[in-house]
């Protein structure tokens, strides 16, 4: 049984994320939902209510009564709790709690006594958060190419066709628009940053990295300041497409059908879209907003999307981007052709210069 501890060389969390067969978070479900180590699974030692109760006892009566109450909660279900770990037997296992304290210590000691290959994450989730925040600043790619374009031109679709791309909207689970959270589970800031770091660590940093143009925020989460500054100073390319092509792609996105076969909305999607539309009352006015909602309810999706683009999205986008200069403008009518043109442009940019006294391999790995 060993604890994973920081050292002066490679950060232990980098090795942990790469090598651990399983990472288990034993915090309460509410703690896990706010943010966790990337790839971790939650096997809670206590429920949210139990954790709150134990915390109150600890603060007012001290450690001994809190530990006693914890043992009472766990005792009757200890067999079921341990059984949750059997799927990881024989594989390297890392366990953590909030600060690497009593919960993870107790679980690691128990599992080790039962023959598990288990380690404790020293410092727990708090230490991991500090690691994420520091690494996000350190792993910013030196050569970003930012893809801009009006809503619906296919920027996200193009990123999926480009090698070495960073999808911020996927990391945030939000499309970065008024309707961006529809049929998604938007991530918390902590979840977003953990996912973002994982994506950054998977990129070849010496090569051009593609990323979609975003404002300071993607939905409710904020892009880290260092990355935002790098995006603002990056090479910019513009993707264009006709209004009708953009309408087709947006309708297909929300109906879940291919562009040529865009169908009807399912009830859950329609309810979410209606709520989002009604939030535009301050922009369109109450009467006009209700007309748009009626279009949605009647299934008149193309005219509805066309109105939203013409009167809301496009004017705002053009105003925000009026001072931008683009190194390349590409038609997005044919996404495969656009992706090929962008890839050729990226190849022509070449690799980023190596820092002094650094090998290409080390630079590519972010060392």
Structural notes for this entry:
- It is built from 18 helices and twelve strands.
- With 367 residues, the chain is α/β, with parallel strands linked by helices.
- Helix 3 (48-61) packs antiparallel against helix 4 (63-75) and helix 12 (243-255) packs across helix 16.
- The two termini are 29 Å apart.
Subunit arrangement of the protein: single chain
Termini separation comes to 29 Å
Q: Could you tell me the radius of gyration in angstroms?
A: 25 Å
> What sequence of helices (H) and strands (E) makes up the elements?
EHEHEHHHEHEHEHEHHEEEHEHHHHHEHH
Main pleated-sheet profile: 5 strands, parallel
**Number of distinct helices:** 18
Overall pLDDT confidence: 89
Global geometry: globular
**Which strand order do you get reading across the main beta sheet?**
1-5-4-2-3
Unreliable stretches covering 5 or more consecutive residues? 1-9, 356-367
């Amino acid at each position: 049984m060993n604890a994973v501890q920081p050292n002066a060389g490679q950060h232990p969390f980098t090795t942990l994320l790469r090598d651990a067969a399983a990472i288990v978070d034993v915090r309460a479900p509410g703690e896990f939902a706010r943010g966790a180590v990337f790839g971790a699974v939650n096997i809670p030692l206590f429920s949210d209510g139990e954790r709150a109760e134990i915390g109150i006892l600890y603060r007012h009566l001290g450690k001994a009564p809190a530990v006693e109450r914890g043992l009472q909660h766990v005792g009757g279900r200890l067999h079921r709790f341990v059984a949750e770990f059997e799927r990881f037997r024989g594989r390297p296992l890392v366990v953590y709690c909030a600060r690497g304290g009593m919960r993870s210590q107790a679980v690691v000691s128990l599992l080790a006594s039962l023959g598990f290959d288990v380690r404790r994450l020293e410092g727990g989730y708090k230490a991991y958060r500090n690691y994420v925040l520091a690494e996000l600043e350190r792993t910013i790619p030196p050569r970003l190419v930012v893809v801009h374009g009006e809503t619906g031109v296919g920027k996200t679709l193009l990123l999926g066709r480009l090698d070495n791309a960073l999808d911020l909207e996927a990391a945030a689970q939000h499309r970065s628009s008024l309707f961006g959270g529809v049929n998604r589970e938007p991530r918390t800031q902590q979840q977003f940053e953990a996912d973002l770091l994982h994506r950054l660590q998977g990129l070849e940093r010496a090569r051009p990295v593609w990323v979609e143009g975003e404002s300071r925020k993607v939905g409710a989460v904020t892009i880290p300041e260092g990355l935002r500054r790098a995006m603002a100073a990056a090479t910019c390319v513009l993707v264009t497409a006709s209004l009708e092509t953009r309408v087709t792609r947006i309708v297909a996105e929300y109906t879940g059908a291919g562009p040529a076969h865009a169908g009807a909305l399912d009830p859950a999607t329609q309810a979410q879209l209606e709520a989002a539309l009604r939030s535009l009352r301050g922009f369109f006015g109450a009467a006009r907003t209700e007309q748009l909602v009626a279009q949605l309810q009647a299934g008149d999706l193309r005219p509805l999307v066309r109105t939203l683009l013409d009167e809301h999205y496009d004017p705002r986008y053009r105003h925000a981007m009026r001072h931008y200069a683009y190194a390349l403008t590409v038609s997005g009518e044919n996404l495969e052709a656009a992706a090929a043109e962008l890839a050729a442009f990226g190849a022509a940019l070449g690799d980023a210069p190596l820092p002094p006294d650094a090998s290409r391999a080390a630079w590519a790995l972010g060392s």
